Amino acid sequence: MKEYKKELIICIVALATTGWIIWFFNRSLQSEKEFKEIDLYSIVVPHPVCIFQINRPIQFKEFAGLKQVTKNPIPEIFTTLLSHQSKEQVSLITFHPEGVLFYTASSIKQRKEMLKNSIQTYFTSYTPQTYEKYGIEFIFYPDIENRFWGYFISEGLLVAGYNRKLLEAVAEQYRNKQNIIPEYIDSTRLTISKTSPANLLLNGELLEVSFYQKQDTISIPENYWIGCDLSGNEQNNSISTLFSYSFVPEHRIDTFAFCFTKEIEKFISPLKIEYQLQKEEDGYFYTGSTNPS
């Protein structure tokens, strides 16, 4: 009888241990799943002029010439963060009149490595300032030119940038679950290819300046965006997209392509872009290169 009870106790303990292991494993998987399912587009603050999506962080340095409309380069700390991300991690860099923001989702392990290898290494000489708002802790480091670079982390989400108001706006939107993606951005991102190293979503209103300089009068519809696929290396950056007939009349395609190229040159590279147009069933396929062969 004692032997029977002993075996029964051992069996119960074994089952309980197995159950705990399975629960812990499933919980870990669920935690990983939750951070991967964060839709970064849902927390982009309103009215960006451009969205840069990085699908392969390891190749981000190939696009070091990327510029903002105001000619300010992407902060170096952003490239440092991307260099310590896993191959499959997707990140966004959004451009606003007030500044540039970086968004990514990460696991606990990735976040610890990012903090240790990127942020803490980059700001070795500074002590961060912290404060809390919307139930989220914000961390800011003093940087050159009397600027402060800050970030916040919440449930696997990391958002960073130099503009405090933009960061707080993202945090408020995220905390209040105001995750409504504008239809014009949502539809545009469906046109890009995630197999490309990176993508560029460009507000069509930016092209109006180029049209004006060319003394043309093509009217840009409100909230019209263009989705582009980017690839490249140290010698050459290339971009491709489709100009739909529904927006660009066939007899105006050359003017549109010219103005589009001039605006894209501000983002992709300081080098001049040569482009080609190929007629397709739905429109003209645009391919531009900074070093055409």
Describe this structure in words.
- By secondary structure, this protein is α+β, with helices and mostly antiparallel strands.
- The protein contains seven helices and twelve strands.
- It has helices at 2-36, 76-83, 108-122, 164-175, 183-189, 207-213, 253-264; strands spanning 50-54, 91-96, 99-105, 129-133, 136-142, 148-154, 157-161, 198-203, 225-232, 237-244, 274-279, 283-289.
- The protein has a twelve-stranded antiparallel sheet, sandwiched between helices.
- Strand 9 and strand 10 (237-244) form a beta hairpin.
- Helix 2 packs antiparallel against helix 3 and helix 6 (207-213) crosses helix 7.
- The protein is globular and about 60 Å long.
- The termini are far apart.
- Residues 23-36 and 67-71 have low confidence and may be disordered.
Tags for this model:
single chain; 293 residues; alpha+beta; 7 helices; globular
Tell the overall outline.
globular
Poorly predicted runs: 23-36, 67-71
The count of strands amounts to 12
**Structure class:** alpha+beta
Distance between the termini: 87 Å
Helix content: 25-40%
How are helices and strands ordered from N to C? HEHEEHEEEEHHEHEEHEE
Provide the spatial order of strands within the biggest beta sheet.
4-5-6-7-3-2-1-8-9-10-12-11
Report mean pLDDT, rounded to a whole number: 76
**How much of the residues is beta strand, in percent?**
25-35%
Radius of gyration: 24 Å
Q: How many H/I helices?
A: 7
Largest sheet: 12 strands, antiparallel
